[in-house]
Amino acid sequence: MTARLLALDTATEWLAAGLRTPHGRWLRHESGGAQASARLVPVLQQLLQQGGESLGALDAIAFGVGPGAFTGLRTACAVAQGLGFGAGLPLLPIDSLLLVAEAARATQADGGAGAWWVAVDARMDEVYAAEYRHDAGTGWHTVTPPALYTLAALAARWEAAAPVRVAGNAPRVFGARLPLQGVRCIEPVEAPGEMAETCEGGRAAALLTLAEAAWARGDAIAADQALPLYLRDKVALTTEERLRQRAAAEPRG
């Protein structure tokens, strides 16, 4: 029987949400950022209304656990916990970097089986990155868990063992500062709006796909066990650090 799942993610500047029931899928994707905390609950209410479901009739709530933007992770976790406590529902923590991998994989004509790296701009010349593998029969497997890398550390890692495919925006943002020659780089297209239930691309569709897989594996946890995945304690550079970083990046004569 198809599980009834509500899913949400605000780990990036986009708000992604979806509802899965035996009657279909409803997807939502819109600008988030500072508006995510105000928009998230109304979006979820709209999805439930569209799907003809009540919160209490659901089986679980999935949420993007991180890594990602500090405020976004807190928003997703707090809303998921509040809804879970209120309705007595378990939660499904979803790796937010794996969302990027799944959204990219869904665009591949060959099904995207094999090795994947995800690399996402974490600001301050750092990257959130993780390595996964997708098997047609068993789905996703984590090879290297999500971590926060300096550009130099990630470049050294890839120079030692070159990735085959990289999903995410880091190749576009950092370009030649990462060793990407011969690497297939895929950045899933983000487009706002309400999407058809047959849509296979984008973060919202990936979120529901991973939520269904997590439910099938029995990954549900109690709402009071939910925690965001924070990989960075420091969220800003000092003036001195910014000047030193800028000087290091300037071309030398």
Automatic annotation (TrEMBL):
Keywords: Acyltransferase, Transferase. It is an enzyme of class 2 (transferase). Its EC number is 2.3.1.234. GO terms for molecular function: tRNA N(6)-L-threonylcarbamoyladenine synthase activity. It comes from the Bacteria. InterPro entries: ATPase_NBD (IPR043129), Gcp-like_dom (IPR000905), T6A_TsaB (IPR022496). The keyword Ribosomal protein does not apply. The keyword tRNA-binding does not apply. This is tRNA (Adenosine(37)-N6)-threonylcarbamoyltransferase complex dimerization subunit type 1 TsaB. The lineage of its organism: Bacteria, Pseudomonadati, Pseudomonadota, Betaproteobacteria, Burkholderiales. The gene is tsaB.
